[in-house]
Predict the structure.
Amino acid sequence: MATAVAKRLVPLLDRVLVEKVVPPTKSAGGILLPDSMTKVNSGVVVSVGPGGRTRDGHTVPPSVKEGDTVLLPEFGGTQINLGEKQFVLYRDDDILGVLEK
């Protein structure tokens, strides 16, 4: 799923490295889907930082873990190219939710 390079990248603090899900461009019947139908704002968590810190110095654990499928905001994050794949680095607070399987 994720390249070995992405697995070695450990985000700092409350950052989360996400590989966006690539939506299908064709239906099962072979019909080409328009761009508006193929827009999906979800991804798979590849790597998670140790968590944020409170003013007292206590660590706040992240709300997601590696392998979670998450709902992402339409805008935001930092684009990162590792090898041939694109990843996005988000803050833990920016992730909208976890999609249950």
In short: The radius of gyration is 15 Å. The mean pLDDT is 82. The helical segments are 4-8.
